[in-house]
Amino acid sequence: MGSAEEKPATGSGRPTSRDVARLAGVSHTAVSFVFNGRAAGNLSPATQERIRQAATQLGYRPDPVARGLRRSRTAVIGLVTDEIASSPFAGRLLRGAMDTAWAGEHLVLTIDSGGDPDKEDAAVAELLDRRVDGIIYAAMSLRRVRVPEGLHRTLSVLANCLPEDDSLPAVIPAERAGGRTAARLLLEQGHRRVALVGGQDDIASAERLRGFRDTLRAEGITVPRDWVVRTGGEISAGYEGATRLFDNAAPELRPTGIFAYNDRVAAGVLHAATRLGITVPGDLSVVGYDDQEHMAAHLAPPLTTVALPHRAMGEAAARLLLDSLATGRTPPATVRRLACPVISRSSVGPAPIR
User: Fold this and answer.
1) N or C: lower Cβ tally within 10 Å for the chain?
2) Fold for domain 175-308?
3) Global pTM?
4) Does 206 have pLDDT greater than 90?
5) What residues does 163 pair with on adjacent strands?
6) Mean pLDDT, residues 240-256
């Protein structure tokens, strides 16, 4: 009533809800119903449409601050990350969260803590002081995390990580299913001599390996112990692992398919294969993991890979918060696992006949 939204428009001023009401021939209350989400059951569809058309004609947009005050909300979602802003996957997750929030008439305020627990606590405290409607906490790599202080004081969702105390909802990749997918890609091309290169002592490595082995075991295939080469997660790890597998081994004793822990490792495998005169995918098929931007599609040959659903995680986390705001119910502390799709390129082919 005393807000800027309700003052009569002046010649060059911003159109107001009262201007919309006059043009549509309805009450000011009717306009408020439409733009505050209370039209259903109070106004006919025809009246709602007339109001929206009048608003479009005038170029009217509701004042988000005034509307937020009326709803005791700010229309802002906080997003706290550890190191994701410096990772090659940050853009996808952030874009998924921001686009979903925007569609729900919210903005996203992002703070990167650099992995410092004290900074994380301070970041969450700052967001709470700004009265954000909810907080997404996102991690660069899948792991269990100490939940920053303050997340339990507002609606909160974790993305690409799990809470140590299982106290908050989380959205993560279906890593074990991703490992199964990688195994099927090789099995479908007739590969039965397969190896796994790269990986670390973390949740993602363990789950991918478990899914990979389970699928092969179901087909009566056992991966030899020395064909699971845990060398790390960088290009050098792939090069080292592949060299260890292929050096001084007769062609008939080599694996014909390799599942790389990630696309960087796969790049190292491809480099080692080139050095050793092993053609891909003629002699060897390689499956990566991540679908790393600016890398996977530009390797030689372009890499077939299992994609991490970073954008989908951002979308799902933001949607959980928006749905909770709409219903007034806190989301249960469950884990939602998102599918990891295959991105087919040129590094997988039929198993060679030996």
Assistant:
1) N
2) Rossmann fold (3.40.50)
3) 0.80
4) yes
5) 145
6) 93
Query: How do residues 216-243 score in pLDDT, each as one tens digit?
Result: 999 999 999 999 999 999 999 999 999 9
Do you know the residue count of the chain?
354
In our burial notation (b when 16+ CB lie closer than 10 A, e otherwise), range 327-340 reads eeeebeeeeebbeb
Average pLDDT, the chain: 90
Q: Is the pLDDT of residue 164 over 70?
A: yes
Classified by CATH at the fold level, domain 71-173+310-338 comes out as: Rossmann fold (3.40.50)
Flag the least confident range among 54-68, 300-314, 327-341: 54-68
Please, how many CA atoms are within 13 Å of residue 85, restricted to the half-sphere of its CB?
12
166: left (phi over 0), alpha (psi -120 to 50) or beta: left
Q: Give the pLDDT of residue 12.
A: 46
Find residue 126's DSSP bridge partners: none
Cα dihedral value 245, 248, 250, 254, nearest 10: 0
Specify the pairing of strand 228-229 against strand 194-197.
Answer: parallel
What residues does each domain of the chain span? 4-70, 71-173+310-338, 175-308
State which fold the 4-70 domain adopts.
Answer: 434 Repressor (Amino-terminal Domain) (1.10.260)
Kind plus residue range of the DSSP H or E element containing 17 = helix 17-24
Q: How far apart are CA 27 and CA 21, in angstroms?
A: 6
Report how far Cα 337 is from the mean position of its chain's Cα atoms. Answer: 11
pLDDT tens digits for range 274-285:
999 999 999 999
Q: What tokens appear for 67 in the block?
A: 């509307």
